[in-house]
Specification:
Length: 393
């Protein structure tokens, strides 16, 4: 019946926005359009609080679902069938829809849930369900009604001029459209946590840039490729990511030579923050983001976080701070970064790992140790040596 495939896209939190709602809806439409930009003959339109995507019949549904469900701000979407808002047309479309499902899935029972968004439509919702149910029973002889545990729940959404028939509500990630909440720089390690942290901030509308530190030749080229691959996976949600790559080895060597061994981890982290802040300032990022989590490792104690933070004046966001590792891992699986994150390449933090790192570092001790280093010069040289890799578009 339909010449095109149609998808109904539902907005999540965007729908709750008061006077700013049109702005958020416009941004969401733009993001959905962008996610589909290389697919020919697609149309994305907003109408009465929903977004409608139309594509050629030949475009695989899975392709559209995969892309649109990754757009932040999308609560759910449904491949749908469209017909005129006329009870006979609705019945006919429902029969065609169900016959297709019978062919695909061999279902035996169904239930209809109707909703009349257009209150001018002359038939009430329960009546629509009853009439369409009777037409489906007649048109699809193998089917029976089961109101408690149907194989297929068929939704009939009667709107002003068109009615939409659909079965699945495929969940999106919700959140807010990208680009509605400034830009942040994530310290991006290649581990499990920092990609999840970046995802969580981007989900609230924040654009993301990333900085990765390596200790080449102690860390390998493959470790960097892994980080680039992680950024590529994230860019399906976050769009273009500017990835800044910094060799930390000159700084690490100075720290190893001149400072107490047990302080090296935390001293390195202080340098990471300083360099990140400078890169952030140069690239209009307003905050730093890390994957730190209270108590997870020696440098992530409360004291460790305090002495790390005091090196910068920019706000440091730690969206995973109170999460359990198991939950972070689940989320990494859900966003498809986990398998790449666990590839066993070395990280610069593990290159000169002290045997007994301090877990309760003191600011005064850190300042003492850093007085043996030319902090400003080391930071400036690191910033000068940044290489940039462009990920996604
Ligand atoms: P992750 O899983 O994100 O690597 P982690 O549990 O291994 O975190 P740490 O190694 O202590 O913990 O790192 C804490 C945070 O510091 C990371 O989440 C990340 O934001 C930042 N970080 C660590 N190593 C690097 C690196 N090589 N480059 C950039 N940022 C880093
Ligand atoms: Mg790590």
């Amino acid at each position: 019946m339909n010449e095109q495939n149609i998808y109904i896209v539902r907005c999540g939190e965007v729908a709750l926005k008061g006077t700013n709602k049109p702005y958020f809806e416009r941004m969401l439409v733009e993001r959905v359009k962008k996610s589909l930009k290389d697919i020919e003959n697609t149309e994305v339109k907003r109408y009465e609080g929903l977004i409608y995507v139309r594509t050629d019949k030949t475009t695989p549904q899975m392709d559209i679902i995969r892309r649109v469900s990754k757009v932040f701000g999308v609560a759910s979407l449904s491949p749908a069938m469209e017909c005129a808002s006329d009870i006979d047309a609705i019945g006919e479309a429902a029969v065609e829809y169900m016959n297709n499902i019978i062919k695909e899935k061999g279902i035996e029972t169904f239930k209809i849930k109707a909703k009349r968004a257009d209150k001018n439509f002359p038939i009430t919702s329960p009546e629509v369900a009853r009439i369409v149910g009777a037409i489906v029973l007649k048109g699809c002889k193998v089917l029976k009604v089961d109101v408690h545990n149907p194989d297929c729940m068929l939704f009939v959404d009667v709107r002003h001029d068109k009615t939409y028939i659909f079965q699945d509500k495929i969940k999106g990630f919700g959140g807010l459209p990208l680009g509605t909440n400034g830009k942040g720089l994530v310290l991006f390690s290649g581990g499990i946590d920092s990609p999840v942290a970046a995802f969580m901030m981007a989900k609230r509308g924040m654009r993301i840039e990333a900085v990765h530190y390596h200790s080449y030749p102690y860390t390998s080229q493959r470790a960097q490729e892994k980080v680039e691959e992680l950024a590529r996976i994230l860019s399906a949600y976050c769009g273009y990511i500017k990835l800044h790559i910094v060799n930390l080895l000159p700084i690490q060597e100075q720290i190893v030579e001149k400072c107490p061994e047990e302080e090296s981890t935390i001293l390195v982290r202080r340098f990471m923050m300083r360099i990140a802040e400078k890169i952030a300032e140069d690239n209009q990022c307003m905050m730093l983001i890390t994957g730190e989590n209270l108590g997870q490792v020696a440098s992530q104690t409360a004291e460790g976080l305090v002495v790390t933070d005091e090196t910068v004046s920019m706000p440091v966001m730690r969206p995973l701070i109170g999460m359990d590792k198991i939950d972070i891992m689940d989320m990494a699986r859900e966003i498809e970064t986990y398998e790449t994150s666990i590839l066993p390449y070395e990280d610069c933090c593990t290159v000169f790992l002290p045997k007994h790192p301090v877990t309760k570092p003191k600011s005064s001790r850190m300042a003492d140790s850093e007085s043996k280093l030319n902090v400003e010069e080391l930071v400036n040289n690191a910033v000068k040596s940044v290489e940039v890799v462009h990920i996604g578009c």
